[in-house]
Amino acid sequence: MSESSKVTPESSSSPDGKAKSEGALGRIFRSFIYLVLIMSLGAAAYAGYQASQAKKETKAGEADLVSKFGLTDSNPKHLAPMYTDKAGRLMADPPTDASQLQNPDTLVVAYDEDTDTDSQPIDWDGFRDFLAAATGKKVTIQEYSNTVEDIANVKAGKIQIVALHAADAPYVVNNAGFIPVAVLGDSPGAANGNRLDIATPASSPIQTLADIKGHNLTCSTPISITGYRAAIAALLEKAQLRPDVDYTVNFSLGQKKSIKGLIKGEFEVASISDDKLQSMLKSGKVKESEYHVLYQSEVIPRLTVGYVYNLQPDLAAKVVQAITDFKNEKGTPDEGTNKQMRFYAVDYKKDFEFVRRIDDAFDPRFGAKNAKDKSKPGEEAKPAEAPTTAPAPANG
Fold first, then answer.
1. Which residue of 52, 111, 230, 385 shows the fewest CB atoms closer than 10 Å?
2. Does residue 307 lie in a domain region?
3. Which has the minimum average pLDDT: 41-50, 54-63, 167-176?
4. Contact at 8 Å (CB) between 135 and 355?
5. Does residue 186 share a domain with residue 313?
6. CATH code at 179?
7. Domain check: are 175 and 314 in the same one?
8. Domain identity same for 185 and 204
9. 308 and 176 co-located in one domain
């Protein structure tokens, strides 16, 4: 081996050798830093993914909770495809085929019984006799509960005249051809109807709808519009508060029970019917100084009466005339005003606008099989599930 090819200790520590060694170490260090950086970015990305998934799961869970209380994404509902509305009334046109028109020998009247009063506001026996005389038909009376069977009977023409809760009217209009013509009141028009009050005890620190967050709302029953549906919809629309997510719900099982519990301080917030509140104020059972109203809704029509869309036109005209002519002298006066109530003509498109907005916010299958199965008075409520026999939405 030549002298020039020998490697000596001195050559390994030469400036060139030292530079090569430091360069290798630098490359190793940079590779390590890159690896650490890549791992950190990967960990951050995974953590972000996990957080995103957790957020999605939380939102899905919240949406599921809210849906169990009947709320859905608010979308305007429309007439079922089998109906037409050429005049834009939001109600079904009568059939153009005369063979599809009804002219029965017996008219069946079905009415929704008011379970929150000791006696009914309408003298139904008197109405039956008055309608029979006005139409020349035999008339029978039966109760209406807005069940699947009831709605199917309206749609099939087995019930020709229906008096039902305003909250239930839009679904029956859209899916069974119901034509609302009048509402119960003590003066003409729907402006004398009822309103929702969301109230607190006078001493409550809750001063706005937004303040309800984290507190409990007491409702009457899941099928009540002023005692439940309107309040749930209003809190979502006005304050973006969702049941069982932003506040809890319990049921008193009665409007008067809600008001009494509120006054006694047993309930933090209550969804109550203004006409029941006014009645109790008038009777001295409640004082204005004992409560504070956070929110009062637009007018909600009371009991709504109408006929099926395919009733023979001349007969339909006689029915409408009888409804608005019936004086109801033996009916129960209004609780708040003590005035005699009767049916007054109504414009469904205009006067039911607020009711339709509430209906748009709710799953049409929603309701309670039996409010008493959900909770005892004052107890926290389980979400009120849609009945298994409830009608499925036709559209919207």
1. 52
2. yes
3. 54-63
4. no
5. yes
6. 3.40.190.10
7. yes
8. no
9. yes
Cβ neighbours for 341, distance < 8 A, ≥ 6 positions apart? 121, 122, 184, 185, 186, 302, 328, 331, 332, 333, 334
Give the model confidence (pLDDT) of 94-143 as tens digits: 999 999 999 999 999 999 886 656 678 899 999 999 999 999 999 999 99
Establish if 44 belongs to a structural domain.
Answer: no
Q: Which residues constitute the domain of residue 320?
A: 98-192+301-351
pLDDT-based confidence at residue 47 (cuts at 50, 70, 90): low
Q: How many domains does the chain have?
A: 2
Tokens read off for 323:
């409804």
Residues 217 and 181 in one domain: no
Q: Domain end: 296, 328, 361, which one?
A: 296
328 with 260, same domain: the answer is no
Q: Which residue has the tokens 């998934």?
A: 53
